[in-house]
Write a structure and sequence with these properties.
The protein is mainly alpha-helical and 242 residues long. The chain folds into 2 domains: 100 residues, Fe,Mn superoxide dismutase (SOD) domain (Helix Hairpins, Orthogonal Bundle), CATH 1.10.287; 109 residues, minor pseudopilin epsh fold (3-Layer(bab) Sandwich), CATH 3.55.40.20. Helix content is 52%, strand content 10%. It has 11 helices and 3 strands, in the order ααααααααβββααα. The protein has a 3-stranded antiparallel beta sheet, with helices on both faces. α1 crosses α2. The structure holds manganese (III) ion (MN3). The site of manganese (III) ion (MN3) has 7 residues, from α4.
Length: 242
Amino acid sequence: MMRRREFIHKSILATGAVVATGAVLGTSSQGYMLQDAITNFELPALPFALDALEPHIDKLTMEIHHDKHHAAYIKNLNKEVEANKDLQGKTVEQICTDVSKYNTAVRNNGGGHYNHSLFWSLLSAKGGSPSSTLAKAIEKDFGNMEAMKNQFNDAAKTRFGSGWAWLIYADGKLKICSTPNQDNPLMDIADDKGYPILALDVWEHAYYLKYQNKRSDYIAAFWNVVNWEEANKRLNLAMKTK
Ligand code: MN3
């Protein structure tokens, strides 16, 4: 049996379509977006300790969010993959891109797996700052960093119920949007499509233990734990390939 990485590598060499997808989407610093399992998705390890983001995101929230919620999306996605041959051999990014072909369980759990894998990679206790490329792009498309953050915060606050806020790159520009449930901007059904640069989970499970009904405080705290290095990498890649 072919090992996963070999399989993906060979798939990439075999078809131009996969080159584009793999090159654009397989970019997390942990590498798990591209290496992710093809017929049996696995929970990626967190790239930091459970308490690393304290006090902004607490240890118990991280533990339940990663070990229980994210794990459940993967378990349920694997059930769908097992039952549907069309899903076998696809990366989670490809599943998202073609999500209209599949049922609601695939949309919810495929999105859940992609979004959470991405979210972990975009969090860090180390801080850092936007690269000059990202800072310039933010200035060009929003005026300044504060304006970008304000738009992002508004998208996160006004997403009714459960969902995500995004900074995406599309058509040569940065843009803010939000999605319901576990949808994401890669999905063919998304109102705003693009390549995610930043992502924030605004489901209550992401913040309720510490922030209760104060979603705004959680959103404000997020800016203290953004992994700018990862966001910089994602923008560079998006600019090269989109
Ligand atoms: Mn979540």
